[in-house]
Amino acid sequence: MRFVSLLLSGALAVAVPPTVGPFEVSSVWYNNVTELDATGTGVWLFFPTNASTAARFPLLAYLHGALGGDGFLVAYAAHLERLASWGFVVAAPDSCDTGCTDASLGAPWTDCAGTPNITDSLGDQWGPFYGEALKTIDWARNMSSGGGIDNPVFSLIDWSTGVALAGHSMGGQAAAQAATRACASRWDIRAAALQHAADDVSGLGANLTVPVIGFTSSGDPSANKTEAIMNATRPSLPVAMRNEIGWSHLEPLLAPPVENPLLATYTAAWFKVFINKDTGTFRELIYGSGADSLCQHAPMAACFTRQ
Length: 307
Fold this sequence. Notes:
The protein is an alpha/beta fold. It has a domain at 25-210 and 218-237: Rossmann fold, CATH 3.40.50. Helix content is 26%, strand content 18%. The chain has 9 helices and 9 strands. The chain has helices at 77-85, 130-147, 151-154, 170-178, 181-187, 204-207, 223-231, 262-274, 281-287, and strands at 25-30, 43-48, 59-63, 89-93, 163-168, 189-195, 212-217, 239-244, 300-306. A 9-stranded mixed beta sheet has the order 1-2-4-3-5-6-7-8-9, sandwiched between helices. The longest helix is centred in the middle third of the chain and has 18 residues, at 130-147. The chain is globular, with a radius of gyration of 18 Å. The chain starts with 24 loop residues before the first strand and ends with a strand.
């Protein structure tokens, strides 16, 4: 089956998938998640609400960009809700808005990447951000095993499928750090998505060990950063990279026309393939050649897939 849009005149338009999935979504905010960096101890959780009582969904940990935490995390709300609508429990930590400050730099959650400490515009405070995703996974696992009063929400998580990981900008770079062998193995991360990621420092691309997709766009002056990570991945690793014409560095944020609603659809499709093991519609969206596929649904500056 293909997703197809029709013009009102009845003529066939460019085929595109829908921007939301089959599930209605609710969200809940958790304060005082003490595992997180002291700069922000909240987690925003989005989850399907109209599923059957037996339905379970993978956890998707999502890391915001620099200056994307605190009150600005709300700008990701539409994107996170769309991701959850495809059948994921999405957990977005609110810490490290302008960098992490804990004296321990997040250890032991930040000693697994196997790369030199990353410094960027936030100095040494940028590097340990990937640990916030790992802390969020630990927190959700503890809550789902009876460690929290809101256990029905966390009972929705299917831990047998492994965990999905995504991030934007600083969070995209951090997701690449957490998608390296030791981190991915310990926290059972099985696929990652990098949205307008920051620099490919410390050989991030070459160290990736889970299937990873990169999203960037020609309207982002730093599009080459995501491309550099993706181009450096090892030949045996399943990867995809989409540099679409238009859109800015803020593609996951706010609402159209700033935010691209299809970003969530193709991100979810990647996770459907490598987390849920889909071999049909979602695999075609990534690897197919139809008008609704990743590299065909819109004009591209560059796009490639590798199985």
